């Protein structure tokens, strides 16, 4: 299946020169040659079967590319230069000049369907894709010069394309829809023979959404055919993963096994919940944007993940007022309507157990383990309505700056800035950051960090949290993580450390948190 996917992508890309080359030239009209007296009469060809057909059974994937010409024209407009890839088409199909008979305004379709005769333990679905043709006769003439063409029935012929070791089996035939013919290709004769009728006399007349690319993944047929095997397969997989992650430590291995088991149960439950996935992609030439939409349909909501999709469904609508307070120069901004802590109890429990067991294996004292686990568990305490935004930071280091100064400046620019707004007072965030600084400073934690990083005590990053005085920002506090230059090179003397800030600013019943390595940019935001 991966080979077919790669061929679809390669052939689609290879069509670019045709799309960018404009409309085909109109041939000069020619007078028909006179028929010699006494010649045999030409018999009319038998009509080709173009009776519409229904969709085959157990289709699991349908993908449709509405108009390749429009997409390629748009991409060339954005790039500003032609992208000649005709040689790529010839390399894949091994048929020189065949791209000239492909209808670039017709959809490119892909289809995957389950095979009832395929074994459940090693399923081999039917896989095919199709492209529109300007003329089946022109296609036949182009192919006959390079390949063996075999007629299967009136108007339908078979040809093998690609290399000897990577073949595509293709059927060319007349078609319903916007193009007079289509070429349907797949890895096996069985694939194209099964899917060709629908891909030429069914799918081409199905209405397309007004999107450049659209598709659907249907899970119901997969569940129907393989659903009974899934719990056993996932249980075996969970057992294997647990064994592979085993450490020999009884407590840690038990925690790993419990966590992996819960993930396995979730996968089984989720597979039973899911019904289908739909996607759409659209290019906007003038705005130079690419937009997409993905939607999931659920039959039931028994799994943890399915339930999370609907946590705030009753609150759908315009963004909360907090959203409009995000920095105006943000490059991205998101909002969330809040998280209920009780929905994350399972993650809190298993994550805490894993952390505790892992630290016990490292011989960390119980009090230190308890402090670290408490930090993790507080992250699962739920969140209020929030907004998060991010932006860029421009490099400021001069050419004459030291190597470390340039590294520090580049790191600050790559991190940019992030701002999070919370519809709650700063008490909880303030307490968590205080605890983080204290836990990091614990003697046992420091000894363990030095042992695993091989960093001397004098070169260890320093973490502190407290009040920060900045004009116009009353109540500002900051967590500062200072990384000394000597951690990179002990010979560096007197260099300013690299500092990462987490600033907390209370605003009545709201809290603003700014993160980044450029102090001036954070204070501005």
Characterization of the model:
Helix 8 (230-244) runs antiparallel to helix 9 (250-273), helix 9 runs antiparallel to helix 11 (345-361) and helix 11 packs antiparallel against helix 12. The model is unreliable at 1-46 (pLDDT under 50). The protein is elongated. The strands form two sheets. It has a ten-stranded antiparallel sheet with strand order 4-5-6-7-3-2-1-8-9-10, sandwiched between helices. A seven-stranded antiparallel sheet has the order 11-12-13-17-16-15-14. Strand 16 and strand 17 (510-516) form a beta hairpin. It is α+β, with helices and mostly antiparallel strands and 525 residues long. The protein has helices at 2-14, 16-20, 68-79, 86-93, 136-144, 189-201, 220-226, 230-244, 250-273, 304-309, 345-361, 366-379, 403-415, 427-441, 443-453, 519-524, and strands spanning 59-65, 108-113, 126-133, 150-153, 156-163, 166-174, 181-186, 213-218, 274-284, 289-298, 332-336, 386-391, 417-422, 462-467, 477-483, 498-507, 510-516. It starts with a helix and ends with a helix. Among the domains are: 2-21 and 50-208, no CATH class; 318-338 and 383-524, no CATH class. Helices cover 36% and strands 23% of the residues. The chain contains 16 helices and 17 strands.
Number of helices: 16
Which range best describes the helical content: under 10%, 10-25%, 25-40%, 40-55%, 55-70% or over 70%?
A: 25-40%
Shape: elongated
The gyration radius over C-alpha positions equals: 32 Å
Low-confidence segments? 1-46
Determine the strand fraction and express it as a percent band.
15-25%
- Count all strands and give the number: 17
């Amino acid at each position: 299946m991966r080979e077919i996917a790669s061929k679809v992508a390669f052939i689609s890309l290879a069509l670019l020169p045709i799309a960018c080359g404009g409309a085909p030239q109109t041939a000069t009209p020619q007078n028909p040659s006179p028929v010699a007296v006494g010649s045999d009469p030409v018999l009319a060809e038998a009509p080709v079967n173009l009776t519409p057909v229904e969709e085959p059974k157990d289709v699991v994937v349908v993908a449709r590319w509405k108009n390749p010409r429009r997409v390629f024209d748009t991409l060339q407009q954005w790039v500003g230069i032609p992208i000649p890839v005709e040689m790529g088409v010839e390399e894949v199909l091994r048929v020189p000049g065949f791209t000239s008979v492909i209808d670039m305004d017709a959809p490119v379709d892909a289809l995957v369907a389950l095979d009832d005769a395929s074994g459940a333990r090693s399923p081999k679905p039917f896989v095919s894709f199709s492209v529109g043709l300007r003329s089946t006769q022109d296609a036949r003439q182009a192919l006959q010069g390079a390949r063996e063409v075999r007629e299967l029935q009136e108007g339908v012929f078979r040809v093998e394309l690609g290399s000897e070791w990577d073949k595509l089996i293709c059927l060319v035939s007349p078609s319903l829809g916007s193009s007079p013919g289509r070429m349907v290709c797949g890895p096996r004769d069985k694939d194209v023979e099964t899917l060709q009728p629908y891909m030429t006399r069914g799918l081409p007349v199905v209405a397309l959404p007004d999107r450049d690319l659209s598709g659907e993944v249907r899970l119901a047929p997969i569940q129907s055919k393989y659903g009974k095997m899934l719990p056993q397969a996932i249980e075996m997989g969970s057992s294997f993963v647990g064994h592979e992650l085993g450490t020999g430590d009884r407590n840690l291995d038990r925690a790993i096994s419990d966590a992996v088991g819960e993930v396995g149960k979730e996968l089984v439950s989720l597979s039973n919940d899911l019904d289908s996935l739909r996607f759409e992609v659209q290019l906007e030439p003038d705005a130079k944007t690419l937009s997409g939409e993905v939607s999931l349909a659920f039959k039931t909501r028994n799994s943890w993940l399915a339930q999370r999709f609907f946590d705030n469904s009753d609150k759908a609508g315009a963004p909360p007022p907090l959203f409009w307070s995000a920095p105006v120069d943000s490059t991205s901004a998101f909002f969330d309507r809040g998280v209920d802590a009780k929905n994350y109890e399972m993650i809190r429990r298993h994550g805490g157990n894993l952390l505790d067991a892992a630290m016990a294996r490292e011989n960390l004292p119980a009090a230190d383990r308890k402090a670290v686990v408490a930090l993790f568990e507080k992250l699962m305490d739920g969140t209020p309505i929030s907004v998060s935004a991010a932006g860029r930071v421009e490099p400021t280091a001069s050419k004459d700056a030291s190597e470390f100064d340039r590294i520090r400046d580049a790191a600050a620019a790559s991190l940019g800035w992030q701002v999070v707004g919370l519809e709650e007072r700063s008490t909880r965030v303030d307490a968590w950051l205080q605890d983080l600084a204290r836990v990091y400073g614990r003697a046992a934690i420091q000894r363990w960090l030095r042992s695993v990083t091989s960093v001397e005590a004098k070169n260890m990053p320093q973490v502190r949290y407290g009040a920060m005085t900045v004009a116009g920002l009353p109540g500002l506090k900051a967590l500062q993580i200072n990384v000394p230059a000597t951690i990179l090179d002990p010979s560096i003397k007197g260099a300013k450390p690299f500092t990462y800030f987490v600033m907390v600013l209370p605003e009545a019943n709201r809290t603003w948190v700014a993160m980044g390595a450029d102090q001036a940019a954070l204070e501005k935001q």
